[in-house]
Design goal:
With 90 residues, the chain is mostly helical. Helices cover 50% and strands 0% of the residues. Helix 2 packs antiparallel against helix 3, helix 2 packs across helix 4 and helix 3 packs across helix 4.
Length: 90
């Protein structure tokens, strides 16, 4: 798995200053946990999915995600006005 992720990371240009891949197989686990949390899974469900013996380990995985649940994009307000004859109004 490590080599597959490494190969694809390099091909996609995810390279650090040393020329090594900046994406690792373990990053995929963190991403899966973050997406599950964002999708509504609770901590125990994510713990089970990742196979962690302790929920504390799972919390460490998710701490960066939890601290960024409100992002700068959440403060951008856009008003969308659709005219009645606009195809989007249907």
């Amino acid at each position: 798995m490590y080599n597959v992720v490494k190969e694809h990371a390099l091909a996609a240009g995810h390279i650090n200053r040393k020329g090594e891949p900046s994406l690792a197989a373990h990053d995929l686990r963190r991403t899966a946990a973050a997406l599950a949390l964002k999708g509504g899974a609770d901590l125990r469900q994510i713990q089970q999915m990742l196979g962690h013996a302790s929920v504390t380990t799972t919390e460490r995985y998710l701490e960066p995600m939890r601290s960024l649940q409100v992002t700068a994009g959440d403060f951008i307000q856009i008003e969308l006005v659709i005219e009645r004859d606009d195809p989007l109004a249907e």
